[in-house]
């Protein structure tokens, strides 16, 4: 048994390096195929992004004049701010609500039907009300991100609490953790953390999807604004370049959340 345990740390870096190598090779192959298809003229360059038009878009956005009302870093900074604020509001409201609904049957009976009624409504269906209530500014976009990210946080936190072994809860009560705050701190949160982090990852992904949709309507700056303007100008290279940045930023934020999860849940490494 000790020999098998000793070999585990050596295998993980090898597997990790293999995954990185395969990932880099896949990206290189996809880029090569993209370049060949574009170079041979198999697609219409006016409708399909090519490496050249995408590079030209990158150069234009990096200049001081920028595109769609701002430079690349201005667009990125604005979009990141909206996602972070909307995501922060979503988890600060969704996680506590999920904990309460999962632990208290009375609270679940009170709030559950309302949540079940609102849950199927698509986030984009809230756009008219968001504009009516908050206008076309950033508060409306933060509201839409909150609406979309709130649901995964609630559902997964609720499931995490409900999956805790009832024996553990009873044992905690017997040993003096009968108070709500102590029960929350010592049993409910630690026991449901894996599912909470799952909900956070889903909420973060949903936040980015909703951001782009929200910025397509009435935005003055942001990556969604770039996408909307480029579509009107028929610039597929600019559209692809903005999409790449949305994917990169979403991936980086997800990796950061996974880094936090590994340190909060070291036993799951």
Automatic annotation (TrEMBL):
Domain (ABC transmembrane type-1): residue spans on this chain? 76-261
Q: Where in the cell is it found?
A: Cell membrane
Spell out the Gene3D superfamilies in the cross-references.
MetI-like
How is this protein annotated for GO cellular component? plasma membrane
Judging by the UniProt lineage, the source's domain of life is Bacteria
Major location (coarse): membrane
| UniProt cross-references to Pfam families, sorted A to Z | BPD_transp_1
Listed A to Z, the keywords are: Cell membrane, Membrane, Transmembrane, Transmembrane helix, Transport
What is the membrane topology noted in the UniProt record heading this document?
Answer: Multi-pass membrane protein
Query: What's one GO BP annotation on this UniProt entry?
Result: alkanesulfonate transmembrane transport
**InterPro entries in the record:** MetI-like, MetI-like_sf
For this protein, the parts annotated as crossing the membrane are 20-43, 82-103, 115-136, 142-161, 206-227, 239-257
Can you tell me which family this protein belongs to?
A: Belongs to the binding-protein-dependent transport system permease family.
| UniProt protein name | Aliphatic sulfonates transport permease protein SsuC
């Amino acid at each position: 048994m000790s020999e098998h345990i000793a070999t585990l740390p050596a295998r993980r870096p090898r597997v990790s390096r293999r995954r990185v190598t395969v990932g880099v090779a896949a990206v290189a192959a996809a880029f090569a195929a993209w370049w060949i298809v574009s170079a041979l003229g198999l697609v219409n360059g006016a409708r399909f992004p090519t490496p050249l038009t995408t590079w030209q878009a990158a150069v234009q956005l990096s200049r001081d004049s920028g595109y769609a009302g701002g430079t690349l870093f201005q667009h990125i900074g604005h979009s990141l701010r909206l996602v972070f604020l909307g995501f922060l509001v979503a988890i600060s409201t969704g996680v506590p609500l999920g904990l309460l609904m999962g632990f208290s049957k009375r609270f679940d009976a009170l709030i559950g039907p309302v949540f079940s009624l609102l849950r199927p409504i698509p986030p984009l269906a809230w756009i008219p009300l968001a504009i009516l209530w908050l206008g076309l500014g950033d508060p409306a976009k933060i509201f839409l991100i909150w609406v979309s990210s709130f649901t995964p946080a609630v559902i997964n936190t609720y499931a995490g609490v409900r999956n805790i072994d009832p024996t553990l809860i009873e044992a905690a009560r017997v040993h003096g953790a009968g108070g709500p705050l102590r029960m929350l701190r010592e049993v409910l949160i630690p026991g449901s953390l894996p599912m909470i982090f799952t909900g956070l990852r889903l909420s973060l992904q949903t936040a980015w999807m909703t951001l782009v949709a929200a910025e397509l309507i009435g935005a003055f700056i942001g990556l969604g604004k770039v996408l909307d303007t480029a579509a009107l100008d028929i610039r597929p290279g600019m559209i692809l370049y903005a999409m790449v940045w949305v994917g990169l930023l979403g991936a980086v934020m997800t990796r950061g959340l996974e880094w936090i999860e590994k340190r909060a849940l070291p036993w799951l490494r």
